[in-house]
Amino acid sequence: MTPQVLVLQHVPWEKPGRILTNLEDLGLDYQILNIVDEKKPDLPSFDEVAGVVIMGGPMGAADYDRHPGLKAEAKLARAAVAVNKPVLGVCLGHQIIATALGAKLHRGEAPEIGFGPIKRVDQHDYFSMWDKQIDVLHWHNDVVGLPESAQLLARSNATKVQAFRAGSALGLQFHLEVTASLLEEWLAEPSMVKDLKAAGGSKSQLREDFERCNPLLEPFAEQVFSGFAVRCRNYAQGLAKAEEEKAPKDPVIS
């Protein structure tokens, strides 16, 4: 079987967006699953997974009682990092990876929703092209600490860990994946609009901010997600080569 990237989605509107575009650009196969409420989810064979993407969602990363599939996601993230398989987490996914690697999860002082600046803390090839500060789209209540031995990449005034690298895993608390069309899907979802209004925002303001910030966010997203896609492709090639070497060779007839 062709190695594929496994994308774990938690709610219909929090889609992979730009992440999928970059996987498709490299011809990578992928599968999108929602296992959040399954105690024993039917996942593809771990050996056939070339990378893992864990998307956002309104649930808490440790809410295993109401969403038992989150435990399987944490276990998968931990197993992937252990064998250097590429992992990408966005918002809830970022928190799932961090807690799976031992970081603490807690409620932020206030929701961080809408566009606002993050500051680069450390240089990494994922984050090499942008200046010290850039406005990104935030949409979260919970925050996480930094996993042990992880590299902190970015922070904001309200959230100390906005991005980190831990081995083969990249966690992003913010939403680089959102395109203009995906933003409209968010703004058609009543629960998202309720969050936005509760945080003092409005649809019109969010649309204006997206238009203003997107010219800088597009190349930044391209760098981050194409970097992840390349890592998945390299891992897939490694899996295919290992499979080839295991295959029985035809006898040589002299």
List keywords for this structure.
Class_I_gatase-like; alpha/beta; Rossmann fold; 9 strands; globular; single chain; 254 residues; transferase; nine-stranded mixed β-sheet
Walk me through the structure.
Pfam families: GATase. The protein is an alpha/beta fold. It has one domain: Class I glutamine amidotransferase (GATase) domain (Rossmann fold, 3-Layer(aba) Sandwich). It is built from six helices and nine strands, in the order E-H-E-E-H-E-H-E-E-E-E-E-H-H-H. It has helices at residues 18-25, 69-82, 92-100, 180-187, 190-198, 203-246; strands at 4-8, 29-33, 49-54, 87-90, 105-120, 133-144, 151-155, 163-166, 169-172. It has a nine-stranded mixed beta sheet with strand order 2-1-3-4-9-8-7-5-6, sandwiched between helices. Strand 7 (151-155) and strand 8 (163-166) form a beta hairpin. Helix 1 (18-25) packs parallel to helix 6 (203-246) and helix 2 packs across helix 3. The longest helix has 44 residues, at 203-246. The two termini are 33 Å apart. The model has no long low-confidence stretch (mean pLDDT 92).
